[in-house]
Design goal:
Shape: globular
Structural class: mainly beta
Protein name: Gp138
CATH architecture of the largest domain: Sandwich
Radius of gyration: 35 Å
Helix content: under 10%
CATH class of the largest domain: Mainly Beta
CATH superfamily of the largest domain: Immunoglobulins
Distance between the termini: 58 Å
Keywords: Signal
């Protein structure tokens, strides 16, 4: 009986929970709205309607609250006159076509304190200038506006505004007040709408600007427009301009403000209308501080009327063109990394790339390019010249591959000396005798070979640096001398190359404490990454674990500290290594109980200067002290047991820097940020909890500077480019490495 009673109570509770209904304060307005728009029965729960999403008010309430309204198109046009302000928990409000808001909605829109998005497919009321939008609103989208837009939307704290498909009657307001909140703006332009040219002055933190130009095919009196160059788009990353009609386009002069977009990395131009003013001269974008500017034009006439070169890009840029008609002489290729051109109707030869040292990829297709493929194109790592009208000859590097392999790059084309049946023929194939033969042990090094007609390196273990003339052969982790590797080149030729691994080289040490356990670690290069390392400390041999790290960071190897002989404070000891039959330098280090920096982070001026660093430095012996930032030495001008003063070099603004303090071979790291010049900022004095700043408990494991004592020998490293390692440090990398190190002891 008790069981039956318990089950009955459970079922009653379950059914009650399953019968949650809309909050009574919202029921009337929602029932009336759904009934008038869709004929939805007044007796039904509005939360059961497909256009409405509700959630429980809280975990204990049986009532639900409306969070999303996604109102689909009704059978006839409808104007919402109901007061929706009771929907206090509304987060998304979407109205599809034929649903309109009354002006009263904007009198109480600020009451929706949780509203994140408004989406309107039909819009015919002007928003009053004194409208206050809720602080929570992040996205406002309007389609088909047929009335003037007031200033309120553009002067709010909304981050994303999208205005689309304007109708007759639409116009843009005069913008007055600065708005630092707007990040994404999509704005239409018509010949009658007007255009606020002061965008860069009022939207000071804009990230993306989209301009959609609707040219109203049957109208006259088109008005050209531009953006004033009085302001600076200091954060603008993305500019997109689209023209919908090309018969009688308005013109937008792109010169006027692009000189004030210092960090933009994407520019997209579609349709006829964007112009480069010939009176201004070349559109020089080379000043832009973009990592990889992508400049894309589609069906655009922007380059059509250029007389000579009219556009230049920042370094490592990409140019991409579709369905345009322009001369390649219009483009300065000197800073381009990639060049793509498709369906260009201008008859011409392939572009001259003699002065394009960075160019790595060329793709030209379905265009009216004629003549020869120059020999200079052999150095392009990614080459695609198919479906053009090239009617001259191909260079020797293509002939080396034959039609089967080379055809994928240059056929079909009516070439004179090359077709799909051409046999490979490579009499000029040559490998230079000199190549890199001393490599790091961590697997990051390559044998760099040079020669003639070496191919595009399709084979395993080959990577093109410069196609056909400079290739890298991947070498795995290892140790020792007198190694060799045989590779097959793209044209079928084979080559055997001999190399050795660099001998071990010790840079510094640290004593790591983690989870109550201390570990003695040494830092350097040339360690064994696959097996254990033989380390000698004060003439006593120890077997340290296989090295970790490598790449852009030095290697790390270590063992339990309690197995290492006890050192007296400030006593010296010697360390050396034997790896793969090769001996390291013998280094004299000094032991200290505590070396640490109390600053959590160091902020420096990009112009260089002087700064004090506080901490506990173990000794007053300045001959044992060195300081570097990312491997560049700093001048220590003053040093005590608790404070040191350094003169530091200039650097680019950024936070990817690490300062390394080395005291007698014991290295400690500190995160460094460079900011724009001025007075040297005061360092943070909050002690760091990372291993790099509290070495008494968890000392740094990322030393990078050579100990103050001069090593007996320095191994020859691979060249600084093409696969060699660098000394740039990463604290987070070494923290991960430390955890891996500890796992090997467990």
């Amino acid at each position: 009986m008790k069981i039956i009673l318990t089950l009955s109570i459970f079922l009653i509770c379950f059914l009650q929970l399953g019968q949650s209904v809309i909050d009574p304060s919202q029921k009337d307005v929602m029932s009336d709205l759904l009934f008038n728009m869709y004929g939805y029965s007044l007796g039904l729960d509005p939360c059961q309607n497909l256009f409405v999403i509700c959630k429980n008010i809280n975990s204990t309430s049986t009532f639900q609250t409306v969070t999303n309204l996604n109102l689909g198109t009704p059978t006839q046009e409808y104007v919402i006159t109901q007061d929706l302000s009771p929907l206090q928990n509304l987060t998304v409000f979407e109205l599809y076509s034929s649903i309109y808001l009354s002006s009263s909605f904007f009198n109480y829109v600020n009451k929706f304190t949780k509203l994140k998005e408004i989406y309107l497919q039909s819009f015919n009321v002007t928003i009053p200038d004194d409208t206050i939008f809720p602080a929570s609103l992040e996205r406002f989208t309007i389609y088909n506006p047929s009335v003037p837009l007031g200033r309120a939307t553009f002067e709010s704290n909304i981050k994303n505004i999208f205005i689309n498909s304007p109708l007759i009657g639409f116009s843009l307001p005069t913008l007055i007040n600065v708005n630092p909140y707007l990040e994404y703006l999509s704005l239409p332009v018509t010949f009658y709408s007007g255009f606020p040219s002061n965008l860069s002055q009022v939207f000071t933190n804009l990230l993306t600007l989209q301009i959609r130009v609707f040219n109203d095919m049957n109208e006259n009196n088109y008005k050209n427009f531009s953006i004033s160059n009085n302001g600076i788009f200091k954060n603008l990353k993305d500019l997109e301009i689209e023209f919908t009609d090309s018969d009688n386009p308005q013109e937008f002069s792109i010169h006027s403000f692009l000189s004030n977009v210092p960090v933009i990395d994407y520019i997209y131009i579609y349709g006829q209308g964007v112009t480069i003013d010939p009176s201004v001269g070349i559109l020089d974008l080379s000043y832009i501080k973009a990592d990889n500017l992508y400049f894309n034009i589609d069906s655009s006439s922007i380059l059509n009327n250029c007389k000579g070169t009219c556009i230049k890009f920042p370094k490592y840029s990409t140019f991409d063109s579709y369905y345009c008609k322009f001369s390649y002489d219009a483009i300065d290729f000197s800073n381009l990394l990639r060049f793509y051109d498709n369906n260009n109707d201008y008859e011409q030869n392939l572009p001259n790339i003699d002065n394009a040292p960075l160019l790595n990829e060329i793709s030209i297709s379905s265009s009216i390019v004629v003549g020869d493929i120059p020999e200079s194109y052999c150095r392009i790592n990614n080459l695609f010249l198919r479906n053009n009208e090239l009617n001259g000859t191909v260079p020797s590097c293509i002939i080396c591959l034959g039609g089967n392999k080379g055809g994928g790059m240059v056929l079909p084309n009516p070439l004179l000396n090359f077709n799909i049946t051409s046999e490979p023929y490579c009499p000029n194939f040559k490998i230079d005798e000199n190549y890199t033969n001393l490599l790091p042990t961590d697997g990051t090094g390559n044998i760099i070979i040079t020669g003639t007609n070496l191919g595009w390196a399709e084979g395993y273990g080959l990577t093109p640096i410069i196609a056909n003339s400079k290739l890298a052969i991947t070498i795995p982790k290892g140790v020792g001398t007198n190694k060799n590797i045989t590779v097959t080149f793209q044209n079928g030729e084979q080559g055997t190359f001999y190399y050795s691994y660099i001998p071990p080289f010790i840079k510094s040490y640290a004593i790591i404490e983690l989870f109550g356990q201390k570990f003695f670690t040494i830092n350097g290069t040339g360690f064994n990454y696959q097996n254990s390392n033989n380390i000698t400390i004060n003439d006593q041999q120890f077997t340290f674990i296989n090295a970790l790290g490598g790449g852009d960071n030095d290697g790390l190897t270590g063992w339990y500290f309690f197995d290492i002989p006890n050192f007296a404070t400030e006593s010296n000891f010697t360390v050396s290594a034997l790896v793969g039959g090769q001996s390291s330098n013998e280094v004299t280090f000094y032991y200290f109980n505590s070396i640490n920096i109390t600053e959590e982070k160091l902020v420096l001026n990009n112009t260089g200067g002087s700064v004090d660093i506080n901490g506990s430095f173990g000794t007053n012996n300045t001959s044992l002290v060195s300081v570097s930032i990312n491997g560049t030495n700093c001048l220590v001008t003053s040093y005590t047991n608790s404070k040191l003063t350094i003169t530091y070099p200039s650097n680019q603004v950024g936070d990817n820097y690490v300062l390394t303090l080395n005291v007698g071979g014991y290295a400690v790291n500190l995160v460094v940020e460079y900011i724009e010049g001025g007075e040297t900022p005061t360092p943070s004095t909050t002690p760091s909890t990372t291993p790099s700043t509290t070495p008494s408990t968890t000392p740094s494991i990322t030393p990078s500077t050579t100990p103050s004592t001069t090593p007996s020998s320095t191994p020859t490293q691979s060249p600084g480019d093409d696969g060699s390692t660098s000394s740039t440090l990463s604290i987070s990398f070494y923290l991960i490495t430390l955890l891996l190190l500890i796992q090997q002891f467990i």
